[in-house]
Amino acid sequence: HVQLVESGGGLVQAGGSLRLSCAASRDITSRRFCMGWFRQAPGKEREGIASIDNFGGDSYADFVAGRFTISKDHAKNILYLQMKSLTVAGTGMYYCAAEVGCGRDTIATMSPDYWGQGTQVTVS
Predict the structure, then answer these.
(1) Tens digit of pLDDT for each residue in 83-105?
(2) Cβ(22)–Cβ(5) below 8 Å
(3) How distant, in Å, are the alpha carbons of 21, 24, 30, 44, 111 from that of 73?
């Protein structure tokens, strides 16, 4: 079992930056896990943002357009999402997720087994 706890959300002005963190209860740096970030805007379905696969490869949704960076701190078992040039459309609940044994899944094909509770991001 993996517990995931997100932090770093908050209120930011359009054009601003935020860094989200996801602390994992076990070693997420092993090659068994894919890790990803998802978000859900009010009234919309949850969508994938970015992921890191079993082999360290990263992938991003098209709407990211080079503005976000996903990374892992191997020593601390923390997953990050650095977001820049945020827009009002970026408002929503942001979730960290983990998939076991996912191989080279991308954010488009990732099917998480574990989810965090989410952290709210509001862009004004």
Answers:
(1) 999 999 999 999 999 998 888 88
(2) yes
(3) 10, 11, 12, 31, 22
Rounded to whole angstroms, how far apart are CA atoms 122 and 73? 25
Instruction: Enter the tokens of residue 76.
Output: 């601390």
Q: Six-digit token pair at 119?
A: 């952290």
Structure tokens of 97?
């997720």
Structure tokens at 59: 């992938």
Q: pLDDT per residue over 30-80, tens digit each?
A: 657 899 999 999 999 999 999 998 788 999 999 999 999 999 888 888 999
For strand 78-83 and strand 68-73, is the pairing parallel, antiparallel, or unpaired? antiparallel
Given the structure tokens 């949850």, which residue do they identify?
46
Distance CA 29, CA 52 (A): 10
